[in-house]
Specification:
The chain is an alpha/beta fold and 251 residues long. The protein has helices at residues 26-30, 39-54, 81-104, 127-135, 153-163, 197-202, 210-219, 233-238; strands spanning 19-24, 58-63, 110-114, 123-124, 139-143, 168-173, 178-179, 191-192, 194-196, 223-227, 245-248. The strands form two sheets. The chain has a nine-stranded mixed beta sheet with strand order 4-3-5-2-1-6-10-11-9, with helices on both faces. The chain has a two-stranded antiparallel ribbon with strand order 7-8.
Length: 251
């Protein structure tokens, strides 16, 4: 498959977000499996990224590691929290390299940048380098979380989104947006299409963790919450269509 157009070109007509950061959970990577990586699911997600790239959008990703190891999980019981979180960070790099492989099999040039130094397999995170890769049309995947324990990959996504000056952070989920309750457990739950950052925090709606939402609020970066399993949703969002839930200052 030919590589999508370079992001040095102008985006396609109608595109409203030139640079996006997509946050994928580790659970999304496992698909229907109990744990690990479902390549069919990964390939489907890769196709979504490619569709956005073809519109001239610069795409960066942060991927969690919960499908392999989570620092606050039962598997980490009795472990030092810092040590457990570092194992979780390594899991995010595994997922990042897997996603890189899926994209490059489709002819998309990709770079993995890690907050934890591991030069044999990926580049170190350097803000200017990440931006340069994006400007050259490469998909950039951030691994290793923030590089520090006690911080989630949601916070890493907010931090990297600010550093690369993303126009929006897209939080991928397996439901259509933010609901008043868990729609998988409560069929009467209602979807909320527009929220403010303060509403998310005050109502504890768990769009992302509080630190991540606060960072986005302070820097004015909107958060879009959407269902990644619906084909074409990423492309719809970057073209300005209303998909899922949008979190802003509400001004």
């Amino acid at each position: 498959m030919a590589e999508p157009q370079s992001s040095t070109d102008e985006p396609s007509p109608g595109v409203v977000y030139r640079r996006i950061l997509l946050k994928l959970s580790g659970e999304a990577m496992k698909g229907s499996l109990k744990w690990g990586i479902d390549r069919t699911q990964v390939d489907a997600f890769a196709d979504e990224v490619i569709e956005a790239r073809r519109l001239g959008v610069q795409v960066a990703l942060v991927i969690g590691g919960g499908n392999i190891f989570r620092g606050n999980s039962r598997a980490a019981e009795g472990m030092n929290r810092a040590a457990a979180d570092h194992i979780g960070m390594l899991a995010t790099v595994i997922n990042a390299l897997t996603f890189q492989g899926a994209l490059e099999q489709r002819g998309v040039e990709t770079r993995v940048l890690s907050a934890i130094d591991m030069p044999a397999i990926c580049e170190p995170f350097i803000r200017r380098r990440a931006i340069r890769h994006l400007e050259r049309g490469r998909v950039v995947i951030f691994g290793g979380g923030t590089g520090n324990p006690y911080f989630t990959t949601d916070t890493a996504a907010a931090l990297r989104g600010m550093e690369i000056e993303a126009d929006i952070i897209l939080k991928a989920t397996r439901v259509d947006g933010v609901y008043t309750a868990d729609p998988e457990e409560d069929p009467s739950a209602e979807m909320l299409t527009d929220l403010t950052f303060d509403e998310v925090i005050q109502r504890d709606l768990r769009v992302m963790d509080t630190s991540a939402v606060s960072l986005c609020r302070d820097q004015g970066i909107p958060i879009g919450v959407f269902n990644l399993t619906v084909r074409g949703n990423v492309a719809r969002i970057v073209r300005g269509e209303r998909v899922g839930t949008l979190v802003t200052h509400g001004d």
